[in-house]
Specification:
Blueprint lengths: L1 H29 L14 H32 L4 H13 L6 H34 L7 H32 L4 H28 L2 E3 L3 H14 L6 E4 L10 E4 L6 E5 H6 L2 H16 L2 H23 L3 H5 L10 H17 L3 H23 L1 H15 L7 H7 L5 H9 L10
Parallel strand pairs: 2-4
Antiparallel strand pairs: 1-2, 3-4
This protein binds zinc ion (ZN).
Length: 425
């Protein structure tokens, strides 16, 4: 029974993804010939058409990737892949007294490594073909390999013990294991937030204090006006990987850091950088960061409670291609849950996108109040152009996937807050 339900949901999600992709490609193509009126004076036609081609190329690659993922999922579950891996591990460990916990950890790790390996050709193609074709890739093959090795080592050092703790709780902590696992998860998340900027991020990038004194005093004035305490303003060498620009915060309390990509600083003027920072500050001031954190803790609690219930249902294993009497059933349950659940939650993504877009409007309004809307508009137009983000996404595709409102709507909201003389500059 659940097999049919699973296949139906998988079929439906693949169908919806294809339909949305087709809509997006058609819509972008239909609007490729001319720049939308509001942007006609600030966006060259060539940039508009580059954005259209880049958008279409990315949608096509995602469609292909989505199809591969769906096939992998069916092979892993209904076609017996997971059962096969478990049998193979049982043969490998036969004759040695390996505890069930270690077999379960091995099972989870093998599945994660297998799916990462299948994803690798897509990452390579994305970085060295697609991004390169549009002039965004700044990464060498050596850097790609170094990143991959570092990321895998960190995943092994941090992820394997975490999986081990969760599995040990599943095996021996009784009916409420999922609640204890949730507490571990929340603690782990908080630890990562504290340690990431100090220990992990510097392994991948250089962070230098912002040296430009004019910009620094501009930023300090803005922080003072907003009553925002930050532990330093840093510039990150994002340009060694990609030409895409960004600005972000990391950390909480008084330990918050502000990080600018060097690519962003190179492209925007002082007032525009200030406006972008004001937008990011808006996310803090309107409590979006806290809300997202609470939301993530809440959904993980619901997810783990659901998993706690599912592990007790024989059909959860049987109907997904695994023998319910399997010795490593908790390892199997963990894999099934994390690979099968997205099939069912995919159709909820418009709700998450909607909440995120509402936050973006609020942060834009905050920035407009702090620095005036004109500079933010100018900065956004430059960023759309530099990142080759299309100005004309299909409204439905956008509603499904986009964490940020479409350019036209976002600028229209800001136009209402900008003095008339700035609207076309
Ligand atoms: Zn934002």
């Amino acid at each position: 029974m659940f097999t049919k339900f699973f296949l139906l949901a998988l079929f439906l999600s693949v169908l919806v993804k294809f339909w949305l992709a087709r809509r997006q490609i058609r819509y972008v193509q239909a609007h490729r010939a001319s720049v939308p009126a509001r942007f006609a004076e600030v966006m060259p036609l060539a940039a508009h058409q580059k954005a259209a081609d880049y958008t279409i190329a990315r949608v096509q690659l995602s469609s292909l990737e989505g199809t591969f993922e769906a096939v992998f999922l069916v092979v892993l579950t209904l076609l017996g892949g997971l059962q096969w891996i478990d049998d193979a591990l049982a043969r490998l460990f036969s004759g040695i007294a390996v505890p069930v916990l270690l077999r379960e950890i091995s099972l989870v790790v093998v599945v994660i490594v297998a799916s990462a390996l299948l994803d690798l050709p897509f990452s390579l193609y994305r970085q060295f073909r697609l991004e390169a074709r549009f002039g965004f890739n700044k990464m060498t093959a050596a850097l790609f390999v170094a990143d991959l090795v570092k990321a895998s080592l960190i995943a092994a050092l941090v992820g394997v013990p975490l999986i081990g703790i969760v599995l040990a709780l599943m095996n021996g902590a009784g009916e409420l294991w999922w609640l204890y696992a949730w507490i571990v998860w929340v603690g782990f998340q908080v630890l990562v937030m504290l340690l990431y900027p100090v220990l992990i991020a510097p392994l991948f990038n250089k962070f230098e204090p912002l040296e430009d004194q004019t910009l620094r005093s501009r930023i300090d004035a803005l922080l003072g006006r907003c009553g925002f305490a930050a532990k330093g303003v840093f510039v990150m060498d994002g340009s060694k990987r990609s030409a895409h620009g960004n600005a972000y915060f990391w950390g909480f309390g008084a330990a918050k850091r502000i990080v600018f990509f060097d690519t962003l600083l190179a492209r925007l003027s002082g007032p525009e950088i200030e406006a972008v920072l004001a937008h990011e500050l808006g996310h803090f001031k309107r409590h979006h960061v806290l809300k997202r954190l609470v939301w993530s803790f809440l959904t993980s609690l619901i997810g783990l409670a659901l998993l706690g219930w599912l592990t007790l249902q024989p059909w959860f294993y049987e109907d997904l291609g695994v023998s319910p009497g399997i010795a490593t059933r908790n390892g199997v349950a963990l894999v099934l849950f994390f690979y099968v659940l997205p099939v069912f939650t995919f159709l909820l993504s418009p709700i998450v996108s909607l909440a995120s877009r509402r936050h973006e409007y609020e942060a834009d309004a905050f920035a407009a109040a702090q620095t005036g809307a004109g500079d933010l508009i100018k900065a956004l137009v430059k960023l759309y152009e530099d990142n080759a983000s299309t100005l004309t996404p299909d409204p439905l595709h956008s509603a499904f996937y986009d964490s940020h409102p479409p350019a036209t709507l976002r600028i229209a909201h800001l136009d209402l807050r900008a003095p008339a003389e700035l609207r076309t500059s």
